[in-house]
Each structure stands twice: as structure tokens, then as C-alpha cells.
Amino acid sequence: MRIRTSSHRLRPSRPAAAGAALAVLLGAATAVGTDNAQAAHAAATDSRADLPISPDWPQGEMAVDGVHQHVFISDPKTNTVVVTDYAGKVVGRITGEAGANGMAVSRDSATLYVALTDADAIAAVDTATLKETARFATGANSGPLDLAFAGGKLWFSYGKYAQGGGNLGSLDFAAAKPAVALNQSGGVSWEAAPQLSSAPSGDQGVLVAGNQDRSPEELTVYDVSSGTAQLRAHRKEIMPGAQQEDIALSPDGKDVMTADRTDNVLLSLDSSDLGYHSRSSREFQVQGQPNAVEYAANGDLAVGMRYSKGVDVYVFRPGEDNIPVRAFTIGDYNLVEPRGVAWAPDGSKLFVLTEEGLSPGHLTLRVFDDPTKAATGLKVTAPVKSALGEKLTLHGTFAYSVLPLPGSVTVQVTRTDLASPKGVSLGSRTVWLSAQREFDIDDVPAAGGKVTYTLRYPGDATHAASTASVTVDVPRNKTTLTLDGDGRTVTRGTNTTLRAKLGRTWRDRTVSVYAQPAGGTRTLVRAGTVDRDGNLVITYKVTRNTTFTAVFPGDPRTEPAQDTSLIKVSAR
Fold this sequence. Notes:
single chain, mainly beta, 5-stranded mixed beta sheet, 1 helix, 42 strands, disordered N terminus
């Protein structure tokens, strides 16, 4: 389905159901944040990692290699491209790339192309070795800025404002010697090198250019299917006073999405004329100022917000309602960077570049798993205290989901307690959901102390997994432990015998007896299992007043216990 919205400001009125649904979605995201990675708007394996890149302007771009599972972030300030894995961990740096800026990965993921603004060239980097293999000159003082594959060629924008404006060029790899062609702007006079975008999957022969970081906005659509740039549509001042931050072309090449930091406005224009057609319009519901947009190969759309109102990244699915299927928060004072969203080619992960407000000076790469699966936000509650050996009830609740959950779902239950400190599976439970998405699970604790129950919903093809835990205080049974001889007086150097007697326990029958002579250190006299009558006998030579302590460490169902006896030495 084609995705479009009006080219005017979003109307303040919305359908009641849609508005209420968005309010629930945004409210949950605001309450959850990113500290609870198992809750409504973060997947179980989401991650974040700091990057050795300053957030100061100018900033580079981001590209993703799905074969080697690498994310490339260019840093023109240090003439490098930082390479991370899919968890955001830095695994390498490509150095010597003067003014490294826009990037594009070849369709086979074998080569990364980097626009070298300060070297007037485009570098080719082997994605397996992360080494530069070739460099293509783009002309003296050209200053290439951005790259995009379309029409069988690699297109680049070039030119600086101070040097008379921007233009377009292409790099053709079909010839034996790759050839550069310049001056292909189609008669459009760009103030400086524009930003470029093409379809994320396949080659639709469509190239979109926009005057990045400038106002008024200006967009141009080129048909490059013939190998040359033919002007299809051109438009200025799409939104009065807006400053274009990012553009994206849909996989079918029919829709142009623009993010221009206009409050609560997300525009999608028809690529044939950059106009608005009411027959297929779609009104996206966002709150804040969009500054990053990116389509996935299947048409999913990610939208980053510079100044948000509770949600920093929205994800929309093609063919769904205009309510986001997923909404992510990155924490107070943190900002999504312009052009700071990118998809893994298979759509399994969403990468978001952010600036950390509380620790400025570096960028952070956040990685969200299964971003197009509807969040399920599992929560669980239980009694604060429950008796050992008696049934207790876990009460679970799923958050509102844009894609409704089925009537029954499977929940995996794990119990962690003194008997199973590493956790023991209680199996999968099929639960029926009420109209409020609630369910109950019963269990009888097998041990006392702090008992933690972890519930995990594994998710399905359209719903993300989520996990929740709750801890219940289960008092253990009490027992008795006595140590005879308290107050006894013996002759110095005499061997004295003491008996520890342990009452009923669940499993552990071990008692330890310690001796501490006056002014001395405490030492273990004997540790062992009591006999069938619960007794443990020790013999100890007393040379001065000595305090004896019998200790039972407890077991999963029995509380610890101890008793002391003081043996005195006679004055004679």
C-alpha cells in the first residue's frame, strides 16, 4: 500500500479510536522508558553502545551491511568511518577518509562507498577486510556529500555553497573503467550539495534529492532508469518555515517521505509530482519534531524525533492504520540525531544514533530488535507475602497492542528460589486473556525466602517478546537448635563434651560447632550431620573461659538457627 499524507499541516482533529489508541501507546512508552528493557516498548535483547564520535556539527551518515552484520558511521571531523557490530560494539575504524560523509553499500554487500568531501573523491572499501581498495576522483573542489544507488549507477551530490552551489554526478561501474559523469542536476539550481535517497530494495530507477539542513525546503525527483537524470518533479517550500532534515523513498519508488522538524507533521508526497492526492492520503500520528526517516526493504517506516513528547522513535507498518505499531523512548535529555535511523537489510533490527544529554561529547548507537513487531509489554504482580506450601496467584497483564493479541497465548514460567538459585522452568502455560488482556497463573512455592517468578511471552510473527518478573516473600519454617553445658565450670585443661540437638528441618541436617576462648579467635570444632535423634557431640580441651556456638545454616524450607554455651574454667 502506498503511504501518503497531506502536504499541509496535520489536522488537529483525529478519529476518536485512533487518538485514544495513540494516547495509550504514547503513555506506555513514556512510563516505560529504556531502563525496563523487557517492558512495553523495548525488546528483550535491545542494546546500546557509546561511539568514539563527537555529536558536534558536521556529522556524517550511517549505512548497514547485512552480510557481515556491520554498521558504518562516518565521522568527517576525524576523517574516519567507525564500524560496529549489530550490538553497537565498535569492531574497527576505516581511517584516512578525508571528510568521510555520505555512504552507500553495494547490493551484494561487498563494497562500501564513502563520499570524501575533503578529498574530492569517492572511496571504495572492501566490507570483508575494511580496507580501501579504490578511489574515484569527482573533480577539483567538488566536495561530494551524499551517495545513493539508482538506475544501475552510484549517484553522488557535490558542490559547496561558497563555491556557487550544488549539483549531481554519477559513477558508472558497467564500463571496464568506472566513469564519472558530472552536471546532472536537470536544470535545478542547488545552493549546495543536496541529500540523496533511493529505494531501499531493488532498483526503481528513481532518485530523490533535497536541500539538506536548509530552509525553505526544496525537493526534486529524478527518473534515472535510462542512466541519465531526467527531471520528474520539483517543489520548493513544502512547509512554510520548515528546515529539511531527512528524506526517504519508499521501496516501490512511489512515495517520498520528508522529515523537516515541523511540530507534529510527517509528510509523504507522491514521487510523480511531489503532490498530495486525497484518494490515497495517510495521516501519520506523531508528536514532536521529525528529523530522521528511513524505509525498510518491506515498506516499514522508522521516524526519529528531535524534540519529542514521550516517544523518540516511531515505527509504522505498510497497510496498517496510521497509528505506529511500535514506539521507542531513549530517555530524558537524549536526542535522536538528524538522519539518525537505519534498518538492517532484513528488517530485524533498527539502529538509532542518539546524543546523550546527561553525558555530552559522544554519540550512542542504540539497537532495537524486532522493531516492527507490536510491543506486548508484559507485567506481572503477586502477593507481597505468601505462606510456604500454599497456592499463590500470579496476575499478568499485557499492554495495549496496535495489533491485538489472540484470545489465548503461551507464557513460559521460571521460578528462582533457594532450592533452585539458577532458576527452574515451570513449563509453558497456555493462558486465556480477558478483555483487558489479563490472566492468572497459580503456583505452590517449593521453597521459602525470596521467590522470584519470571514470565516470558515468546512473541509471534507480529508481536514482540516481553518478559516480566515479580518477587514474593515466602517465610520459611522455624526449627530449634540447642547446645548444652551453658554455665558449666571445668578444671583448666580438661576435655569437656557438649551436645548440639537440632529439631525438625526439611532437608539439611548439618550443624557446625565453633569455639572461641576468651581473647582468642573463633575456630571450627566440628561440622557434621546430626544423628537420627538430631544430636551432634563434640569434645574440646578447655584452657580458659570458652564460648561455644552451634550453627544450623538453614535449608530452602527451614530458617537458620544457632545457640551458644559458655564453659568456665575454675580458679584452682
